[in-house]
Each structure stands twice: as C-alpha cells, then as structure tokens.
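Late entry, T3D complex.
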Amino acid sequence: MTYENIQFDVTDGVATITLNRPDSLNAFTTAMIAETADALKQCGRDAAVRCVVITGAGRGFTAGQDLAEVQGRGDEFSIGPHLRAGYHRIIKGIVGLEKPVVAAVNGVAAGAGVGIVLAADIRIASEKASLVLAFSKIGLVPDSGLNWLLPRMIGQARAYQLAVTAERLGAEQALAWGLFNEVVPAEQLAAQVDAWAQRLASGPSISFGLTKRAMNRAWSQTLEEALDYEAYLQDTAARTADNKEGVAAFLEKRAPHYTGK
Ligand code: T3D
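Prediction complete; structure with ligand written out below:
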C-alpha cells in the first residue's frame, strides 16, 4: 500500500508511524485510517521491527475523525461498519501487536485519537499535549475502545466526567492520573522517545511481547487462570536465546546483548 497520509519509517529496529495531515491536526480520513492499520500490520509481519512509535506531524497528535469528511457523507452512510473496518483495526492492531508500542504524544489527541494513545503500551508526552474526549461535543459516544480502556485506567467517575464534559485534560493531570508515563518539555520529546524506542528495540523482544499478551489476557482471567497462563508463557520465554544471554550476562557481570530471539 502506498502511504499518502502517514509517514512510515523503519530504522534500527524501530518503526515510526507519523500521522501526517498537520493542517487538520492529523484528523483521520478513511484513507488515513486504512494506511495506519496497514502500517501496524507491516510492523507485525516484519521481524526487524522490535518497537513501534506512533506520533503526529505538526502541533497535534490527532484530532480524531475528520469532521469535514463526516459532513460529506450521504444519508445512507453507517458509522458502525466504518468503525469496525477502520478504527477497530488500529486499536486491535496496537493492542494485539506483541511488540512494545510507544505513543509520542506531541500535542492534542481528540476523539479516536485518545483511544490510540491509550491503546499504546508506553505514553511519552510533551508538556503541550492534552487529551479531549470530543465525542459528546458532536453528540456521539466514546468509541475506539475508550469505554473499555479509560474507566480501567482512571476509574469510571473520572472517565465519565471527561466523556460528558469533553474538557481538555492537560499533560500534567494525565501524568498524575497514570495515563502518561512521562511528560517532558516539547523540545525534549523526540530525544526522550528515541531513548525509549532504542531501549525497547534492543531488549529481549519475545519477553516484551509475551508480557504484553499476559497482561492483556489477565483482564479477563481469574487469578488461577492467570497463574497457569504465566507458567505456560514462561516455558516459551525460558527457551529463548535472550533468556540464556540474560542469565550469562548477569553471571559474567557484563551488559547483555539481546537479539530478540
Ligand atoms: O463519524 C465517525 O466516523 C465516528 C468516529 C468517531 C471518532 C472520532 O474521533 S469523533 C471525534 C472527532 N473529533 C472532534 O470532534 C475534535 C474536533 N476538534 C476539536 O475539538 C479541536 O480542534 C481540538 C480540541 C482537537 C484542538 O483545538 P485547537 O483550538 O487547538 O485547534 P483548532 O483551531 O480547533 O483546529 C486547528 C485546525 O484543525 C482547524 O482548521 P483551520 O481553521 O486552521 O483551517 C480545525 O478546523 C482543524 N481540525 C481540528 N479538528 C478537526 C479538524 N478538521 C477536521 N476534523 C477534525 N476532527
């Protein structure tokens, strides 16, 4: 697929997806949704990719659904299929990808964009970043997994408040509520994200991927089931070259060199 609305780059084990429609704060058109979902799929297929970064060009991360496109829809247009064939592929593409995904939140994320931020595993934000559940401002309900993700992260009272007021949640408050891992000055965001990405891409990738799977699955498991599943995954992790390298490096008092195998 040719990308016209995103930039996609793979360097040194790090795939970077840059949402690239800065004039509309990177609002999602149908084409941009398809391109983003496709890029995530490529990240899953490419063994050279060991970490994924998602960010936005210009001053925004993404303003969610492009409302100009919405206005151009005919009366027969149905949003359900649009969500299922589009945003759901992105959210499931991030959550189901067994590689660490870093959201580099450079500015405002609104609507479905908040879902994309929260679906990521590590969220590094500029002090200029903010989150806006814009849906109620246009008479919609939160989508893109937000009714599942947000109450689990900050509790239902805060999640519902953000949904019905559509107020802007600033970066510092998002950090305090545990939605962001770190907030840094805008001019340091690229370097800080790069440091995270390099660290994740040079780590024990199978361990990182299986940890993501275990934690995601644990939401719907009993403790008994989670313990059993951990034991199953540990059997796999313990057979990796990276496990052997980690143990050898510890005993030899040197830094490990992980290959992701
Ligand atoms: O229908 C379906 O497909 C269902 C799917 C739903 C998923 C969703 O994401 S629904 C939610 C859609 N998003 C919104 O409702 C957000 C609308 N935008 C805003 O509320 C504000 O723009 C922001 C809070 C995000 C940022 O505010 P601010 O003051 O920093 O920027 P701005 O001046 O409002 O916007 C800058 C430009 O971006 C402006 O264009 P201009 O005047 O410079 O030519 C604005 O029109 C454009 N823009 C911002 N958001 C969108 C957009 N253009 C199209 N669609 C947008 N969502």
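The first helix runs from residue 30 to 45. Will revisit in the morning.
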